[in-house]
Amino acid sequence: MRTTSVLLVGVGGQGTILAGDVLAKVAAAAGLDVKLSEVHGMSQRGGSVDTMVRFGERVFSPVVSSGEVDHLVAFEITEAARWLAYLRPGGRLLVDPRMIAPLPVLTGALPAPAGLEAALEAEGALFVDAGKIACRAGSPRSANVVLLGALSVGLPFSASVWREVIAARVPPKTVDANLAAFELGRRAAGEGGAA
Amino acid sequence: MVDRTLLSGNEAVARGAWEAGVRVGVGYPGTPSTEVLEALVQLPGVRAEWAPNEKVALEVAAGASLGGARSLVTMKHVGLNVAADPLFTLAYTGVTGGLVLLVADDPGMHSSQNEQDTRNYAAFARVPLLEPADSQEALEFTRLAFEISERFDVPVIVRSTIRIAHSKGLVSFGPREERTIASFESQPGKYVMLPGNAKKRRVDLDPRFAALTEFAESLDLNRMEMSDPALGVIAAGVTYQYVREALPEASVLKLSMLNPLPARLVQDFASRVGRVAVVEEIDPYLTSRVRQLGIAVEEPPLQRMGEYTPRMVAEAFGARPPAAREPLEGLPPRPPMLCPGCPHRGVFRALREMGAVVTGDIGCYTLGALPPLSAMDSCLCMGASIGMAHGLELAGGAGERPVVAVIGDSTFAHSGLTGLMNAVYNGSSATTIVLDNRITAMTGHQENPFTGRTLMGEPAPEMDVEAVCRGLGVEHVLVVDPANLKRTERALREAVEHEGPSVVVARRPCALLEKSDKRPLAVDEDRCTSCGACIALGCPALSVSASGKAVIDAETCVGCALCAGVCAERAIRAGVEACEAGESA
Question: How far apart are CA A116 and CA A93, in angstroms?
Fold first, then answer.
């Protein structure tokens, strides 16, 4: 089996790290070798964050570069655009269309980027309004799990394994909301269908 | 299937130390090394402590080793600069209980002020160095490092880089080796480094190192992975993984012990392949040593800085770049920033309003250097703020502008005290602000002497920083709550006007420590005059709307009301929660 590379990108505090951890544990539960790479530290403070998860029979490098990612999951639209070049031709692109303006935009030093949705749509993006869907699932903090639900539709792991790993990994009080978020994410990506 | 657990390199180092029967773990937090002790403290039978700095940490571990306990010391690359003094002489004294240093490098400077290659320290200090290439090796090499340390009577460095420390992989566990500690035996010839003893220990170091070299030659962790003999690549650590990924045809010499170098093995490998190349990040450490063996080494066209990727390695050996999308142009950068609700944000506003020249320090508050706060003029290394403020004065100061050193609580404990002592002794009139948020925040909330709690969770005395400053001879010491902007501004003005050294302690816990139950705020558009006073605070919850008015993002706002305090129009008031604001469908 060829090694599969998934890149999760977003803004510090959005839960990309937890999402990457869940994905890695799901792949491990399926008996695959897996590596996960994340950089934290300075980037936690509202900076751009990225988590790479790679799984297959034997995984060497924890990271890949431009043009080599099979699934790009963006928790925020500017980050989707920033990391787009990492996606291989024909790769899958999932984007939460919400925008979290970076500091230079907040202060008015730079304009907010325009036309991102159209540019990403042209690249075949599937938009998943994870923040809003998460509110519907009962917790605005579960947007990361909504996106995992959408991602899961394109990966060869059973939904029951995903649910087990999510239930074990999220805070106990939030298990129901997160499992609901996962299902809504799957539905948003056309559960079981091609994306 | 063997039961395997997903662990980061840092967690695996902790596990490896624990399996080796480690009794004592000491360190100072620093990305990317911090999580080692945080993982170790959760395992039974270990005393784990945060020291105020890396030098003290290594000295504590040296004492524990002297007493026969296996001890682990953790730090980031720049921490080893601080701990270098004890390290060099520990190579002479050697150990009783195994002593292992985990030093994590940050190629690419994700969260560091420089890029250093710790391998040089191993050669410089004459201590062995092991470098793992994944989490499983991080566990096994740490366990092995304790054995090597005791068998060859030396401290051992386990070097990792950020891609090992912060990458996770599947790890198989072993049992803990239960070890008893022999009763203390005085060995002054070994441990009292008077010149007479040190000279003997220096002479003794060479045979210890010769034995270590033989050990490295026979160590099966240094191994040839033969494939096509046309190209032979030597690599270690994460670059070994990049080489295996990028050059599947090449023969590889995977080195795990980099000091001392197994020279015969390297020569054997070179004799079996057509061309020899070395792939290594940061410094040409292996390249120059392999060349010293008389081997012609190809240097692939890779930059001598930053991190590599498998793709960079492939292209350095002639692969063509893959078909990739063009990156989208014109995207705004996303620099890190002070958190919403950071109680210390207002101090930077006050400093900017005063026109102060600010010598800064290492920590979250270094972010005060970025626009729109733009309130910092230097940041060099841990503790430098106070010495540099005094030095700037010696150079004539900055005209009418006051000179102010800004340092956090943990950094002050790490190496601010000596700078302040010097300022008093040498008659400085600089002002020092200690931004006391009760925790080592930037690295993810590690306890320190200000916190009132240890890494083990025990209560600890909180350092009385006012008494400490007065004890050092600072006459003007003020404590303020930075949430009170007006009082803070007044205290700063008084301090800079004071002749002689002065200290202002701005004390309020990190906003992330206490979950805010305050409701988000909102802007009354009718009252907002678009003056920009709130925007200039650089709060991530505040932005300028299309109409030019300030607007608050309810999901980000923690209700600290610093913005309300700077709003002359009283346009900022209570808002509603994010999901209530019509976001739920």
Answer: 13
